[in-house]
Design a protein that fits this description.
The protein has 704 residues and is α+β, with helices and mostly antiparallel strands. The protein folds into four domains: 80 residues, Cytochrome C Oxidase, Chain J (Irregular), CATH 4.10.91.20; 300 residues, Catalase HpII,  Chain A, domain 1 (Beta Barrel), CATH 2.40.180; 82 residues, Hemocyanin, N-terminal domain, CATH 1.20.1370.20; 144 residues, Class I glutamine amidotransferase (GATase) domain (Rossmann fold). Helix content is 27%, strand content 17%. The chain has 21 helices and 20 strands. The strands form four sheets. Strands 3, 4, 5, 6, 7, 8, 9, 10, 11 and 12 form a ten-stranded antiparallel sheet that branches. A six-stranded parallel sheet has the order 17-14-13-18-19-20. β5 and β6 form a beta hairpin. α12 packs across α14, α13 packs antiparallel against α14 and α17 runs parallel beside α19. The longest helix is centred in the middle third of the chain and has 18 residues. It is globular, with a radius of gyration of 29 Å. InterPro entries: Catalase, Catalase_AS, Catalase_clade2, Catalase_clade2_helical, Catalase_core, Catalase_haem_BS, Catalase_immune_responsive, Catalase_large_C. Its cofactor is heme. Its EC number is 1.11.1.6. Pfam families: Catalase, Catalase-rel, Catalase_C. This is Catalase.
Amino acid sequence: MANTPDHPGGDDFTFTTGEGGETHQQVANDAGDARPESRLTTNQGIRVSDNQNSLKAGARGPTLLEDFVLREKIFHFDHERIPERIVHARGSAAHGVFECTDPIPELSKASLFAEKGKETPVFTRFSTVAGGAGSVDTPRDVRGFAVKFYTDEGNWDLVGNNIPVFFIQDSIKFPDLIHSVKMEADRGFPQAASAHDTFWDFISLMPESMHMIMWAMSDRAIPRSLRMIEGFGIHTFRLVNAEGKDTFCKFIWKPQLGVQSTLWDEAVKIAGADPDYHRRDLFEAIDTGAFPAWDLFVQTFDEDFASKQPYDVLDPTKLIPEEVIAPRKVGTMTLNRNPDNFFAETEQSAYCPGNIVPGIDFSNDPLLQGRLFSYLDTQLKRLGSTNFHQLPINAPKCPMHNFQRDGHMQTAVPKGRANYEPNSLSDNGEDGGPRECPETGFTTFTANDERNDGGMKVRERGELFADHYSQARLFFRSQTEIEQAHLASAIVFELSKVMIEAVRIRVMARLRNIDETLAKRVADGLAMDLPVKAKAAREPIDMDDSPALSIQQSYDIPMKGRKVAILFDEGSDKSSIDTLKSGIEKDGGTAFLVAPKVGALKLKGGTLAADGQLAGSPSVLFDAVACAMMPDNAKKLAKDSAAQGWFMDAYAHCKTIGYCPATKEFILDKLGIEPDAGVIPNADFLGVAPARHWDREPKVRMLA
């Protein structure tokens, strides 16, 4: 049969139809000779003659067990899935490069920080924490931020989150935390949500979690894009220079596109409109050459500084405000290539905080110490072998030689007898294998200068670990009024899903140690009386506000990296649309054309095809919207629920709305959308979009 659009073939294969009408695409002999990879084979390299029909005893007879092609194909399919990560199961990742822009040899002997311009390949994975691999991208949740540096000294994994602190102080509580936030054990729901009894029951009994709760209930937990989140190593690490001098260090990633969030109502609607919103956004940005980039900063300090702080730097529920120690930039990471295969790379990537290189070392942070064990252990369960490091995505890009041998799925083929040392095989003319490197090899920093009595083994925490509220107070009071309202409203929403009243009471009792107005707002939002303040293990103190903790105070929203929708219909003025589109793209944004129908529409001045249909392209997917309509079309759209929702959502989510005269008269006016700083004529649109207009929010929703 000839190749046609309905019967696709190609230069390398032809299309035929079998006796049952099934499709066969068959390689041409000359093409197969020229390109052997075009021939379909089994995993053993045996060419497959028919990939559409199993081997049967007659056309209508039973399938034969001897069909090795069928058995191999089904066998492999049945075992395609590996256990998903217990946490951080839903992830998206990309390849890239880290460039050292500001060397720090005086602080660290790590080669990737040694010289300006030095480049190190990276593979970076972003993830949600609570949901499974099949959950949505936009729940209220912490986002994982894990970077694998393929340095010339070995792999370094910087495994953190988009929030600089954590829920717990000691790793022994990690299983309890995750059990509480995951789906409730008896019912298997809710998925990817912390708004339920068991999580808040645990939190209400763990005062050390209150600082993290401030972050998790803030807008940081509902980001606009993975390209617009910060990343933190969370723990205090050490940098060690060539002379053996150590410096404490915290690692911070700052996105060049700035930090931006969504609104809760927006995040919920995005989940319905596009469950893969963040994954698609990252993939498409890289695919189109809009490579996202982050600058890596370090906060460095010594033991003298640490000993004078009102908190313990080994406590992972605490941060060092940027106003106290200004972050120092050391380099830039640019993600410039999407994975070739999601499973082989993103899913099989294995990160371990214990993977460090000379010049980087650990502190006694008790949460970090537990992670050093846990991550390595979990890879054996997920990937089925201690040889997981041989998978291409995990393999170092520098030479690797040792005496580890065999094991499940060993893919290397070591030669010779030397699988131990010391040995004297080289004296007999054989390869004796590698040997230890005392001068250039990794040596653990040995000094015990963390105010610790190493002569005693105890199960207890440092004195300053008992202050659970001061930094939670610092975070809340550093937010703008609207951010504080978002945070209070988030807690009200979450606690409204908690059916055990005593849990709600305990949470509010703890909130009183953070801020009385916050506790009162939550109590009012739940129509409950404010309980007696919970007794604090250590009385909180007031710290200086840190504007760096606020999203809205830290960054202006640029057009670069943002997505702006332009709604049009038949008869619209093409030149107006072209002007908006070119202006958006000139400033680094992406213009997305929306119309009631896809396909080329006749406009004033030409024809234009939409990128998406109105009902399938809700305004929650965009950072700002504009509209160019003729009066008759505007009148018609004013009666369409999809169009009404398109404008009402944009207005309710405080986005910039650009309008033409017909849009204002027949749509906006009828919907009660009044002009303000962000509801403006198209002529002014490019100078304002895609800013959010927070003064509008009290007009469109009730906030706690």
